[in-house]
Amino acid sequence: MIEMLLFYQEALLGALVLALGCSVLGVYVVLRRIVFVGAALAQLSSAGVGLAVFVASTGLGLGWLTDELTISLAVTMAGVAFFGYQAGRQRIPADAGLGVAFVVAGGASVLLVARSATADIYDLFFGGDILLISIEEIRLLILVVVGVLVVHTLFFKQFLFVSYDPEMAATLGYRVVGWDLLLYMTFGIVITLAMQSVGVLLVFSYLVLPGVSGLLLGRRLRSVFAWSVATSALGTMLGFVASVAFDLPSGASIIVMMGVLTGVAWVVDASRRTRAVAS
Amino acid sequence: MEAKARRALITFEGVELGYGRPLVLKDLDFDIEEGEVLGLVGPNGGGKTTVLRAVLGVLQPLNGRVHRHRPEIRFGYVPQRSRLDGRWPLRTLDVVLMGLYREAGLVRRPSRRHREEATALLEYVALGPEAEREFSTLSGGQQQRALLARALITRPDVLVLDEPFAGLDVAGTAQLLRIVGELHRERGLTVIMASHDLNTVANHVERVALVLSGAFRVGRSEEVLTSEGLTGLYGVSIDVERVGGRVAIVVSSGAAT
What we know:
The complex is a heterodimer of chains A (279) and B (257). Chain A is mostly helical. In chain A, 84% of the residues lie in helices and 0% in strands.
């Protein structure tokens, strides 16, 4: 099995890089109660891939301008601009708007790919397969994730302030919409790249499960981030091992392992609360 | 609190406020005077917070203008506690430090001096021992005082409080009123507080603005808070009694006659 793991070490590295990036963003996603922004952006990103595949099949491709990454990023960023600017300003509830984006983007993805692609592409597109990630993709992932983490480190206090108390932040002169957009852009960039490598479901899982675990286990914001990263890293490694050992789909194995870890976090939190009440 | 002759600090001139149509409030023409204590009273949803947002400059008028007579007025804002999500695992000290984020600079974290300043203010509002405690585990009154400390750390000229007494018991309300009164007297802070609690506001402000479903009336407490005026505005029978220099506002059962 060790040999098999070594054979897939690049894929594991790619998954860990994604896990790191998504688990940091996931803390904001969970605390800001925008988990469906993650789902909707991932689905929009997949619609972008579908559009690129469709354009390519018509023979109207324009090089890098119409490749999967470019179109996917453009569609996701349009979603980012819409969700970031519209937050709290819509007549309909925010989750309804996200639901609309999610299902419409999902439907469009199916139609675009069904009209233009092979079943292989279809599977890769929806299920994702981290085992097929290339070294170039991993390099790009590392570059982007490190860049996003630098932005999050530098502007931590702005992201925290506009997320926790936007009214007070605005009173002190912060451009809340601008900071929200920057935060959402970091979501969009990471989600777009992640979607190409691991598929919608795993991206969504990386954005939600580690953040939930972090919140259950961490007592301070810093430790919430730490637990979130630890959950995603451990879940990824365990899922990878299970995937190789039992010949299971890698993405689903990682999701289930992170789910188990989140369950453990739930139990730890519940017992901690019970002890606190008893004392 | 005793009123003195004062200069206008902020002037509302023909202001219309809202979030699209229909308007929340229109024809707002009044001054906020330097060093005064102004109470905005009215029922929930009447537009008090909307007026506060316009005062703070985070809501632009749809028509008219909100004129600031000094170019740099610093606001210390105490938001409604219920708007803050208790799931964020933040220490009380972290919450107070947010008031200094801008001063800390674009990418720098608050310094040791900032933390000392925040700690000193927490001690001022009698929360020194709670600095390391998670903010969401504080009582309502403690949270309100922590938010007051956060507002004060911005070294404000104007203290703006939105429903500061909501959910507080009598002791919590009294403690908060004592601190705010002290800040007004000793530091000369202008105080604007929005509350649906007529009795509390009536006894601790110099002027009152009644904000009710599009209607707006501002004046000295004894001019605005009359039985006839309040009964007309709320549509229920309200008695205003003045006993020993204190105001008691009592709602009678049944509709106004």
